Structure prediction request, 139 residues.
Amino acid sequence: MKQLAVLVMLLLPSLISAGQVPSVCHNELSSWIKAGQTLAIVDIQGAEEFKEHNYAGALSAGSDPLRLKKIAARLRHTKGKVVVVSATGGADALQTMEQLVRGGLTRSRILLLEGGMEAAAANAVCDCCKPASIGNTSK
Prediction:
């Protein structure tokens, strides 16, 4: 099992760049949020990272599999895209995507945030992502 995880981590960047894993960049996600597009954002950052920087309305799952299972059950009957946000957009995001699929979400609805919140934070300040203390919810 550990070997598989190492293999996934090594191959993830090439899979994303080859278009095998659906992803969205921060700027496109920002435009979807501003346009009011129907979507759900599942944030798997740690609690401290989530407080520092997250997208408005993001569902905070952290690394809790039970919470993620509940989120998957809730999103199963909704419409729109589901964007998985992690700190770096790495293997943890891919694993979360697989957990959401096992929880009943259609794979075609799920996207990963390219580069995670580290890449988003490197972008210019925008209105779509703010510290949790100024209005974002962790449902």
In short: Residues 13-18, 132-139 have pLDDT under 50 and may be disordered. DSSP finds six helices and seven strands in the chain. The chain has one domain: 2-134.
